[in-house]
Amino acid sequence: MPRTIIPFGPQHPVLPEPVHLDLVVEDEKVVAARPSIGFIHRGLEKLVEKKDYVEFVYVAERICGICSFIHCQTYCQAIESLMNVAVPPRALYLRTVWGELSRIHSHLLWLGLMADAMGFESLFMHSWRVREKVLDVVEATAGGRVIFGSCKIGGVRRDIDAECIKQTIADLDSIEREIATITKVFLSDRSVKARLSGVGVLSRKGAYDLGCVGPTLRASGVAQDMRTLGYAAFKDLDLAPITRTEGDSYARCAVRCDELLQSARLIRQALAKIPAGEVAVKVTGNPTGEIIARTEQPRGEVVYFIKANGTKNLQRFRIRTPTFANLPAMLQLLQGCDLADVPVLLLTIDPCISCTER
Amino acid sequence: MTAEANIEIVTPDALLEKVRALRDQGYRLVQIGAARLPESMELTYSFDLENRLANLRLNLPLDQPRLPSISSIYKCVLLYENEIHDLFGIQVDGMAVDFHGNLYKTAIKHPFATLKAPRVTAAAEPKPSGPPKSAGPPKPATT
Questions:
Q1: Which of A348, A124, A332 is nearest to A246 (CA)?
Q2: A3-357 has which CATH code?
Q3: A151 touches chain B (CB under 8 A)
Q4: Distance to chain A for B134, nearest Cα, Å
Q5: CA A344 to mean position of chain CA atoms
Q6: B73 has a chain A CB within 8 A of its CB
Q7: What whole-number distance in Å separates Cα of residue A203 and Cα of residue A291?
Q8: A35–B33 C-beta distance less than 8 A
Q9: Which of B3, B44, B79 lies closest to A327 in CB terms?
Q10: Which of A260, A355, B46, B134 has the lowest tally of Cβ within 10 angstroms?
Q11: To which H or E segment does residue A133 belong?
Q12: Under DSSP, is residue A115 helix (H, G, I), strand (E, B) or coil?
C-alpha cells in the first residue's frame, strides 16, 4: 500500500491555534504523525532576562489566554516561595476561587470546541453561552475577563465584598444547573458515545509511561492531581481527583465534564470558608535560588522552573506546560487511527498551543 | 505547594545509569530544561513519584555541548530532547526520534541561545570615513 503524507494544520477548522502535523497515511489509516511547533513561539522564557521579576507577572499571565490566571498564580507562588513571603489566607482563598473559575471557563471552551468538531453545533453554542456567564462572574470579581490581572507577588490586587460573594454564589447556582444539563446531554447522547467510545484508548500504564498529565492521565485511572499538593487554599478543601478507568476518548471527555461540577463545588466551599483579613503583603528585595513550582492547570500539571541570582532579573524561567507533556501520548494515539478520527483525538487531549510554544 | 529543588549533580557518562535507576523505581519523567549560564550549559531532568520530585543536573561546556539521549529509557522524551537541540544547540546523541532541527519552525533561525554575538547587518556597519560620494569621479554609466 503506497504511503501519502497529509499536512494537518497549522490552519485547520478544528484548531483554534496553530500546530502542524504531518500525517503519514496508508489509505484511510494513519501510520505515523510527526509534529512541528514554533509558529507562535514568542520567546517569553528569554524575555525574563529583560523584564524585572515584578513586571514579569504581567508576561506570565499573558502566556496563554485560557490558562492565564493559573500561569500568573504559579509564577507568583514560585517567587513567593523563593523569597519566603507569607501570603495572607484571604488572598490564597481568592486565588483558589479565580483558579477554579478559570478551570470552568477553560473546560466549557473545550466542550464547545469538542462539540463543534463532532458537528454538534447546538451544544457548542450552549457551552459557550454558559461560558459567557462564567466570564461575567470573573469580570464582577476580578475586573478582567480573559486576563484577570488580579494576582501579584505577595497576594492579590483586589478583594471582593460580602455582597459580591453572595452574588457569585447565586450566579454559580444557575451556572451549575446549566452545566449539569449540558454535560448530561453530551455524555448520554448516542451519537457522541458512538463517536468517542473505544476510540483512542490509552492504558493506565501506557498513559503513565508516556508522561501524560491532567484529565488525559486521570481518564486512564491514575489519580494524579497537583491540587492535592495543597497549594493556595486546596489544603483546606475537600478534593478527590476525578478518575475513569476506560482510557478512551469518551472517558477523557467525561473526566472534564465531572471536573466542571467539581470546580463549582470547590468554589462554593472556598467562598463559605473564606477568612477575613488583608489580601496582600508588601514584598521587598530580590529573589535568590532556584525552585520548581507545580500547579494544576485545566489541562494538567504545569511545571515552572525558576533560577534567580539576587538581581531584579531572573536568570532562567522555564515552563513545561501540560500540552507539551500530553503531545507524545497524542502522537501514539494517532498511530493506527482512522484519518477521520484525527480531529477528535487531537481535541481529547485539549491542546493549548500558545502555552506549549511560549 | 512548591517543591524545593532537590537536585543531584551527574556527569553525562553517569546519566543513563541514574535515569534507568529512577525509571525502575517507577518515576515519571516530568521535564527536561536547559539554561544557558555565563560559564556553562545547565540541564535539569525532573522526575516525579507520588508527587515527590527528584532532579538530575548536568553541566555541559558552552563549546559544542553534547549529551546522551535517554530515549531508550523514556520513550516520551522526544519533544524535550528535540527542543533542547533546536533552541539551545545541544547535540543529543542517539535520539530514537530525531527531527534534525525541524521540530521548531520559527521565523528567526534557531538555536537562539548559542548565538555568540549579535549579527551585524549592512545598515548597522560603520560607514568608512572619506569624501562624500558626490565629490568623487562620476561612475561610468551602465548599459
A1: A348
A2: 1.10.645.10
A3: no
A4: 43
A5: 18
A6: no
A7: 32
A8: no
A9: B79
A10: B134
A11: helix A121-142
A12: helix
